[in-house]
Design a protein that fits this description.
single chain, 136 residues, mainly beta, Immunoglobulin-like, 4-stranded mixed sheet, 4-stranded antiparallel sheet, 8 strands, 43% strand, globular
Length: 136
């Protein structure tokens, strides 16, 4: 019985592969921002800022995305594995809430802004978002 259990355990370890590391390389890609704030009932424009990694050093880029629009915010294709931080700024009548979004490029992605929250009491302003694949 012990021998059977040992063989069964050895088989399971070999069959599972041991959870080895993947040799897959991250894909190059672009970053898009979709402004879905009209769905929240409070459509506000947002601007997106980041430092584009260039050959001569980082270059500041700023793109405005109107409510209901999707815009490419990267200047060109970014190398797979590149880490980039985007600052999303909501333009409301009261304040300009911000969100810092750090992504690692692995194919094209979309940052979807769902809500820009700027309460009358000026406490806890924020930009709500999620990250998904490239726009289809």
């Amino acid at each position: 019985m012990k021998t059977l259990l040992v063989w069964l355990g050895a088989f399971l370890v070999l069959a599972c592969g041991g959870g080895g590391t993947s040799s897959r390389l991250p894909e190059d890609g672009r970053v898009f921002v979709r402004n879905d704030t009209p769905q929240s009932g409070y459509p506000y424009p947002v601007s997106v800022e980041y430092l584009h990694p260039g050959e001569t050093g980082p270059e500041p880029v700023e793109v405005t995305v109107e409510p209901g629009e999707t815009e490419e915010v990267t200047k060109d294709v970014l190398k797979g594995g590149t880490k980039v931080t985007f600052t999303i700024i909501g333009h409301t009548p009261r304040q300009q809430p911000r969100a810092e979004v750090e992504v690692t490029i692995d194919g094209s992605i979309t940052i979807v802004v769902t809500r820009v929250y700027s309460p009358a009491a000026y406490d806890n302003p924020r930009v709500d978002y999620y990250i998904t694949g490239a726009p289809g």
